[in-house]
Amino acid sequence: MAGGRAHDRATWLLALPFGLLWAPALGLAGVSCAGLGFLLGGLLLSPDLDTRSNATRRWGPLGVLWWPYRRGLSHRSLLSHSPLLGTAGRLAYLAALALLAAALLAPLGAPQPRQLVAAALEIWHGQRPLVVSALAGLEASSWLHLIQDGDPQPRLPRPLRHLLRGRRRSPRSRPSSPAGWRR
Protein backbone atom coordinates (compact mmCIF):
# COMPACT_ATOMS: atom_id res chain seq x y z
CA MET A 1 0.00 0.00 0.00
CA ALA A 2 1.38 3.36 -1.01
CA GLY A 3 1.69 6.27 1.41
CA GLY A 4 0.33 9.77 0.94
CA ARG A 5 3.50 11.14 -0.64
CA ALA A 6 3.62 8.32 -3.18
CA HIS A 7 -0.01 8.96 -4.12
CA ASP A 8 0.67 12.68 -4.50
CA ARG A 9 3.83 12.15 -6.55
CA ALA A 10 2.08 9.77 -8.95
CA THR A 11 -0.85 12.16 -9.29
CA TRP A 12 1.43 15.07 -10.19
CA LEU A 13 3.46 12.93 -12.62
CA LEU A 14 0.49 11.46 -14.49
CA ALA A 15 -1.91 14.43 -14.64
CA LEU A 16 -0.39 15.95 -17.79
CA PRO A 17 0.02 12.66 -19.67
CA PHE A 18 -3.60 11.80 -18.86
CA GLY A 19 -4.71 15.24 -20.03
CA LEU A 20 -2.76 14.88 -23.27
CA LEU A 21 -4.79 11.79 -24.12
CA TRP A 22 -7.74 14.13 -24.68
CA ALA A 23 -5.86 16.54 -26.98
CA PRO A 24 -6.79 14.91 -30.32
CA ALA A 25 -10.52 15.03 -29.56
CA LEU A 26 -10.87 18.18 -27.45
CA GLY A 27 -7.72 20.23 -27.96
CA LEU A 28 -6.16 22.36 -25.25
CA ALA A 29 -9.47 22.75 -23.39
CA GLY A 30 -9.77 18.96 -23.09
CA VAL A 31 -6.16 18.65 -21.92
CA SER A 32 -6.84 21.29 -19.27
CA CYS A 33 -10.14 19.82 -18.06
CA ALA A 34 -8.89 16.22 -17.95
CA GLY A 35 -5.57 17.15 -16.33
CA LEU A 36 -7.22 19.43 -13.78
CA GLY A 37 -9.84 16.77 -13.03
CA PHE A 38 -7.03 14.26 -12.49
CA LEU A 39 -5.22 16.63 -10.12
CA LEU A 40 -8.37 17.52 -8.18
CA GLY A 41 -9.36 13.88 -7.94
CA GLY A 42 -5.96 12.78 -6.66
CA LEU A 43 -5.18 15.70 -4.37
CA LEU A 44 -8.57 16.90 -3.05
CA LEU A 45 -11.10 14.12 -3.72
CA SER A 46 -8.91 11.14 -2.92
CA PRO A 47 -10.43 7.85 -1.77
CA ASP A 48 -8.53 8.52 1.47
CA LEU A 49 -10.98 11.24 2.51
CA ASP A 50 -12.39 8.52 4.74
CA THR A 51 -9.31 9.02 6.99
CA ARG A 52 -7.27 11.92 8.30
CA SER A 53 -5.10 12.15 5.23
CA ASN A 54 -3.19 14.65 3.12
CA ALA A 55 -6.34 15.13 1.05
CA THR A 56 -8.36 16.00 4.16
CA ARG A 57 -5.69 18.44 5.35
CA ARG A 58 -5.63 20.16 1.96
CA TRP A 59 -9.21 21.27 2.55
CA GLY A 60 -7.88 23.46 5.36
CA PRO A 61 -10.65 24.79 7.61
CA LEU A 62 -13.22 23.26 5.24
CA GLY A 63 -11.81 19.83 6.09
CA VAL A 64 -14.44 19.68 8.82
CA LEU A 65 -16.96 19.13 6.01
CA TRP A 66 -15.51 15.64 5.54
CA TRP A 67 -15.98 14.64 9.18
CA PRO A 68 -19.47 13.10 8.65
CA TYR A 69 -18.14 11.27 5.58
CA ARG A 70 -15.24 9.88 7.63
CA ARG A 71 -17.51 8.88 10.51
CA GLY A 72 -19.99 7.15 8.21
CA LEU A 73 -17.46 5.08 6.27
CA SER A 74 -14.72 2.81 7.43
CA HIS A 75 -11.38 3.12 5.64
CA ARG A 76 -11.30 1.17 2.37
CA SER A 77 -15.02 0.59 2.46
CA LEU A 78 -16.99 -0.37 -0.61
CA LEU A 79 -18.40 3.16 -0.73
CA SER A 80 -15.05 4.95 -0.67
CA HIS A 81 -12.53 2.63 -2.34
CA SER A 82 -14.55 1.26 -5.25
CA PRO A 83 -14.08 2.22 -8.87
CA LEU A 84 -16.90 4.50 -10.04
CA LEU A 85 -18.92 4.12 -6.84
CA GLY A 86 -16.29 5.85 -4.68
CA THR A 87 -15.88 8.85 -6.96
CA ALA A 88 -19.63 9.12 -7.52
CA GLY A 89 -20.20 8.99 -3.77
CA ARG A 90 -17.69 11.76 -3.05
CA LEU A 91 -19.19 13.94 -5.79
CA ALA A 92 -22.73 13.27 -4.54
CA TYR A 93 -21.61 14.13 -0.99
CA LEU A 94 -20.14 17.43 -2.19
CA ALA A 95 -23.25 18.21 -4.24
CA ALA A 96 -25.46 17.54 -1.22
CA LEU A 97 -23.31 19.87 0.91
CA ALA A 98 -23.46 22.58 -1.75
CA LEU A 99 -27.25 22.29 -2.02
CA LEU A 100 -27.62 22.34 1.77
CA ALA A 101 -25.39 25.42 2.02
CA ALA A 102 -27.39 27.11 -0.74
CA ALA A 103 -30.66 26.36 1.05
CA LEU A 104 -29.32 27.70 4.35
CA LEU A 105 -27.77 30.81 2.80
CA ALA A 106 -30.63 31.63 0.40
CA PRO A 107 -32.22 34.10 2.86
CA LEU A 108 -28.93 36.01 2.80
CA GLY A 109 -28.96 36.32 -0.99
CA ALA A 110 -27.13 33.14 -2.03
CA PRO A 111 -28.42 31.29 -5.09
CA GLN A 112 -31.33 28.93 -4.48
CA PRO A 113 -30.59 25.19 -4.74
CA ARG A 114 -32.72 24.98 -7.89
CA GLN A 115 -30.57 27.71 -9.44
CA LEU A 116 -27.43 25.68 -8.73
CA VAL A 117 -29.01 22.60 -10.29
CA ALA A 118 -30.09 24.62 -13.33
CA ALA A 119 -26.55 26.03 -13.72
CA ALA A 120 -25.04 22.52 -13.46
CA LEU A 121 -27.46 21.22 -16.11
CA GLU A 122 -26.65 24.16 -18.38
CA ILE A 123 -22.92 23.41 -18.10
CA TRP A 124 -23.61 19.71 -18.73
CA HIS A 125 -25.63 20.45 -21.88
CA GLY A 126 -23.34 23.18 -23.16
CA GLN A 127 -19.94 21.64 -22.46
CA ARG A 128 -20.61 17.92 -22.16
CA PRO A 129 -17.33 16.69 -23.74
CA LEU A 130 -15.26 18.86 -21.39
CA VAL A 131 -17.31 17.82 -18.35
CA VAL A 132 -16.87 14.17 -19.35
CA SER A 133 -13.10 14.67 -19.66
CA ALA A 134 -12.98 16.28 -16.20
CA LEU A 135 -15.07 13.46 -14.70
CA ALA A 136 -12.83 10.91 -16.42
CA GLY A 137 -9.83 12.65 -14.83
CA LEU A 138 -11.43 12.41 -11.39
CA GLU A 139 -12.13 8.71 -11.89
CA ALA A 140 -8.71 7.95 -13.41
CA SER A 141 -6.94 9.46 -10.41
CA SER A 142 -9.11 7.30 -8.16
CA TRP A 143 -8.10 4.20 -10.14
CA LEU A 144 -4.46 5.23 -9.83
CA HIS A 145 -4.91 5.47 -6.07
CA LEU A 146 -6.59 2.07 -5.86
CA ILE A 147 -3.94 0.42 -8.02
CA GLN A 148 -1.16 1.90 -5.88
CA ASP A 149 -2.91 0.60 -2.76
CA GLY A 150 -3.25 -2.83 -4.30
CA ASP A 151 -6.97 -2.82 -3.53
CA PRO A 152 -8.38 -5.80 -5.36
CA GLN A 153 -11.57 -5.63 -3.31
CA PRO A 154 -12.76 -2.91 -0.97
CA ARG A 155 -14.34 -3.76 2.38
CA LEU A 156 -18.07 -3.91 2.87
CA PRO A 157 -19.70 -1.12 4.91
CA ARG A 158 -19.61 -1.69 8.70
CA PRO A 159 -23.25 -2.81 9.12
CA LEU A 160 -22.89 -5.44 6.40
CA ARG A 161 -19.54 -6.66 7.76
CA HIS A 162 -21.02 -7.08 11.23
CA LEU A 163 -24.04 -8.87 9.81
CA LEU A 164 -21.91 -11.28 7.79
CA ARG A 165 -19.42 -11.74 10.60
CA GLY A 166 -22.24 -12.72 12.93
CA ARG A 167 -23.43 -15.37 10.50
CA ARG A 168 -19.96 -16.83 10.05
CA ARG A 169 -19.27 -17.01 13.79
CA SER A 170 -22.26 -19.14 14.71
CA PRO A 171 -21.08 -22.66 13.80
CA ARG A 172 -23.01 -24.05 16.78
CA SER A 173 -26.27 -23.40 15.04
CA ARG A 174 -25.34 -25.84 12.29
CA PRO A 175 -22.62 -28.49 12.54
CA SER A 176 -20.14 -28.61 9.70
CA SER A 177 -20.62 -32.31 8.99
CA PRO A 178 -23.74 -34.41 8.57
CA ALA A 179 -22.44 -36.85 11.22
CA GLY A 180 -22.94 -34.19 13.91
CA TRP A 181 -26.53 -33.42 12.95
CA ARG A 182 -29.33 -34.58 15.21
CA ARG A 183 -31.81 -36.99 13.75
Properties at a glance:
183 residues, mainly alpha, 0% strand, globular
Write up what this structure looks like:
Helices cover 64% and strands 0% of the residues. It is built from 8 helices and no strands. The protein has one domain. It is mainly α and 183 residues long.
Largest sheet, strands/sense/barrel: none
Q: What general outline do the C-alpha atoms trace?
A: globular
DSSP, total strands: 0
Question: What is the CA-CA span between the terminal residues?
Answer: 51 Å
Number of helices: 8
How are the SSEs placed, and which strands pair?
Layout: H1 4-20, H2 23-43, H3 54-58, H4 67-72, H5 85-105, H6 113-126, H7 128-149, H8 158-168
Task: Summarize, please.
64% of the residues lie in helices and 0% in strands.
